[in-house]
Amino acid sequence: MTNSAVANPCDTSTANGLNPPPVRLPKLVQGVGFAFFRRRAMRNWIKRYGRIFEINVPFFGRSVVVSDPALVRSVCTASTDQLSNVQPNLGNWFGPGSLFGLDHGRHRDRRRLLSPAFHGQSLKNYEKVIEDETLRESANWPEDEEFRILEPMNRITLNVILRTIFGADEAELEELREIVPPYMKLGQLMAFVPAPPSWTGRQGPWGELDEFRKAFDRIVFTLIARAEADPGLGERTDILAFLLRSRHDDETGTLALDICDELLTLVCAGHETTASALAWTFERLRRHPDVLAKLVRELDEDGTALRRATIMEVLRVRTVIDVLGRRVSSPSFDLGDWRIPDDRTVLVRMADLHENPEIYPHPERFDPYRFLGTRPAAPTWLAFGGGARRCIGADFAIAEMDVVLRTVLQNFRIQTDAAADEKSYFRGIAHTPKLGGRVVLNRRT
Ligand code: HEM
User: Which of 75, 184, 253, 359 is a good FRET partner for 177, with 20 to 30 A between their CA atoms?
Assistant: First the structure.
């Protein structure tokens, strides 16, 4: 990548070693564009400045925004000494013991500890849970009647992650099913908004979040105490058991409060993202009868390749998490010909990468065949981010989408029509179909 491909030819600040071109608008206007009209703002700024430029926005301050594949590769392959965790991050919401809040050695150790729970045999073990939860949720779906599939998908993915984390479906999980959805809704909106200095700990949305958090911790402490008393803890495969065993091996390891932060992280990060991607899948299939027919045929012949390709294409064409962040933590960081100073935020805009016509011809088209027989990867396909902080649940999410889609297609016929595409709705972190992914289904006989 050379600067000639990304720089504004009118801007003289593109010489080697200088900052990327800044967006020349008042900070407030940039902030409103970034927070509420991000897609449109980014498109305008890319057109004007190229695929690397600098914005100045609330919370992140001066931030370099990148969507050029070669520059994105540099961000993803940088060492954690050069680019560390973005500030602020979701650790503000989930607590300092959350993967989102950890950095450097502690981050690496926690990932090493959790990884086995999200790969290999563990994933195989979860397939039955995912299928059961899909069948349970879909048992009462209406026929011949339009309904939003987003909420049912949220319930499936929440139940799956709760059972994966805690093992048995204990009574306490019922309480978590009640409190997590409203907590998610509010938490996404407030994740980066600090409580005012005058806050006494009770009022406003921060007070509500605090109440939720206390209830969550109370339930999790009960489940921890029960698991610790379980003589079969050593053989258990749930994530709580993983974390507890690590604490027993090394008393300085995972503390009970860290366990609460991490479990909250996994419950929240691990369900709504996948549910949104699934809702988008049904939203797309309703409008693409050709793809749907081939998927059903493939399923009846026990195939999987097109279903996998469809999932990858949904995650590209409707990118659920559109941006990831890092922070320069060395005296400077060289990004292509640009030199980014210490403490500056670097934001990778995955949605713009996925909509680049030089990488994906006709990027607006839903075309799963692009990925048939190939495995899309960084830096051109970045639905799960990349590098040391790449989504730890990526394989889990793909396996879950695969089993849910397979189970629904096995049991239902999706009615197709020429309904207008649903617009995207930003919930604070995830992008979902604005009308909830409306579908009309019939049972397959
Ligand atoms: C379609 C579903 C999902 C999408 C699109 C998604 C996307 C992402 C993205 C973009 C990141 C940031 C990566 C980066 O900074 O490079 C991330 C991080 C993370 N995700 Fe996911 N995710 C999904 C599902 C899941 C699931 C199922 C889990 C857990 C069960 C999970 C847990 C996490 C965690 C813990 C992190 C923080 C990783 C770290 O900082 O080391 N995600 N995810």
Answer: 253
Residue position matching structure tokens 């088209």: 365
For residue 10, the tally of other CB atoms under 10 A from its CB is 9
In 10 A of CB 112, how many CB atoms?
10
Beta 61-66 vs 345-349: how paired, if at all? Answer: parallel
- Rg value, the chain, Cα: 22
For ligand 1, atom 21: residue with the closest CA: 391
State the burial class of residue 415 (Cβ atoms within 10 Å of its Cβ: 0-12, 13-18, 19+): middle
Atom 20 of ligand 1 has which residue's CA nearest to it?
Answer: 391
Residues 100-126: what's their mean pLDDT?
A: 90
Q: How far is the CA of 155 from the centre of ligand 1 (A)?
A: 19
Summarize the confidence of residues 213-220 as an average pLDDT. Answer: 92
Model pTM above 0.90? yes
Q: How far is the CA of 91 from the centre of ligand 1 (A)?
A: 13
Dist. CA 67–CA 354, nearest whole Å? 9
List residues bridging with 413 in a β-sheet.
442
Ligand 1 atom closest to residue 319's alpha carbon, by position in its atom list? 5
- Residue 100 Cα to ligand 1 midpoint, Å, equals 9
Q: 268 near 213, Cβ under 8 Å?
A: no
Nearest CA to ligand 1 atom 6: 384
| 253 compared with 241, residue with greater pLDDT | 241
Helix (H) / strand (E) containing 399: helix 394-411
pLDDT band (50, 70, 90) for residue 318: very high
